[in-house]
Specification:
Structural class: alpha/beta
CATH topology of the largest domain: TIM Barrel
Strand order of the largest sheet: 11-14-17-16-15-18-10-1-19
Distance between the termini: 19 Å
Shape: elongated
Helix content: 25-40%
Oligomer: single chain
């Protein structure tokens, strides 16, 4: 086992699913996005744990991601959130994926592939209520729904939209989200008035689970919440909907750790790493850690990040290399070679802390921890 590893706390995943249940209630279905290898956590392990914890649906971005889940023995319903290429459509059918239909051309291609395979395919109609990415416009929704219903090998199983700024507490963004939700409700109602069952209705991502109860409908799609990060402040009590206070703190699922592999004493005036951007002001002990931007540790954190060893934090010095980085242990130290270090997670900084330093989001931090970093799963 390599010294650098991502420890995946599956018990935290189960806890976070429980948190979502306390907020939204037990009557709603939960769809967990496991795209991008479950945000870097490992899709098959995460999916199996989540399904045992009561998640009913999974969601992926690519046909290949869906096939990996099927190959991993997962037979739960899997939504396909992004549009596949024409040559991928037979694999959509073969793997029993549930695509979000965005237009009649795609629906017709699915119907033809399903007919050729001799099997029906469930689909969800995607409505673009303001995200501006993919989906049918509200005024064309009834026409699209009718087209789906007219195809013998398509099963109209759900209707969805995606909210653009649901995590924002800015007045104008709350107003925009409310407009999206209202537009979606009106569109679903128009489909019903046309005599068509819209199936499972869903729109709520993590931000909406917290801030917009009117978006919950039949199913919710919390992503980053399940992995331990709320896109907005999450307090105990008011969100439970049952009048009882509850512990709604989320627990980060990924912990990134490594080991000290080398320690040396450098003299005052000596420099560290590429570009000689850091120079010792006094004689100092420098430790080398076998993790770098080739593992997904952002190079831009050089000079900003502190790394936890035992109960103390030590600053990263010099530029982060592809495979290694260096930290300053100070003029005197009791740190030993092979000591454990924590980059984020556990009782150290979180991925959200690193994201804030870089002006990004925790999704990007966990997704970028790449495949050469082994995952260690703890139940």
């Amino acid at each position: 086992m390599r010294g650098t590893r991502a420890i995946i706390h599956l018990d935290h995943l189960t806890w976070n699913i429980g948190v979502v249940r306390k907020i939204a209630g037990s009557e709603r279905l939960i769809c967990l996005p496991v795209k991008a290898d479950a945000y870097g956590h490992g899709a098959v392990w995460v999916a199996k744990t989540a399904l045992k914890a009561g998640v009913r649906y999974l969601a992926v971005a690519t046909v290949h991601e869906g096939k990996l889940l099927r190959d991993g023995g997962i037979d739960a319903p899997i939504l396909l959130l992004s549009i596949p290429l024409p040559e991928e459509i037979p694999d959509v059918v073969a793997n029993g994926l549930i695509p979000l239909v965005t237009d009649q051309e795609f629906a017709a291609a699915l119907a033809n592939a399903a007919k050729a395979a001799g099997r029906q395919v469930q689909v969800h109609l995607k409505i673009d209520t303001g995200m501006g990415r993919v989906g049918v416009s509200p005024d064309k929704a009834v026409e699209a729904a009718s087209f789906i219903k007219s195809r013998d090998f398509l099963v109209y199983a759900g209707t969805a939209t995606h909210l653009a700024v649901s995590e924002s507490t800015a007045v104008e963004d709350i107003s925009f989200t409310k407009q999206q939700i209202l537009r979606f409700k009106e569109t679903v109602d128009s489909i019903k008035k046309a005599g068509i069952d819209p199936g499972i209705v869903h729109s709520a991502n993590s931000g909406a689970v917290i801030l917009h109860q009117d978006s919950w409908f039949d199913m919710i799609r919390p992503g980053i919440m399940i992995y331990g990060y709320a896109p907005v402040a999450l307090e105990a009590g008011p969100l439970t909907g049952n009048g009882k206070e509850a512990d709604l703190r989320l627990k980060p699922v990924m912990e990134l750790s490594s080991r000290v592999v080398f320690i040396k004493k450098v003299k005052k005036g000596e420099s560290i790493s590429y570009g000689r951007k850091w120079t010792a002001l006094v004689d100092s002990w420098i430790a080398t850690i076998p993790i770098g931007y080739g593992d997904g540790l952002p190079r831009a954190l050089g000079g900003y990040l502190s790394i936890k060893i035992r109960d103390n934090f030590y600053p990263l010095v010099g530029r982060i290399c592809m495979d290694q980085c260096m930290i300053n242990l100070g003029p005197e130290t009791d740190i030993k070679r092979w000591d454990e270090v924590t980059i984020f997670g556990g009782k150290s900084f979180t991925a959200a802390d690193l994201a804030e330093e870089l002006g990004t989001i925790p999704y990007e931090i966990t997704c970028n921890i790449n495949k050469r970093v082994p995952r260690v799963y703890i139940k």
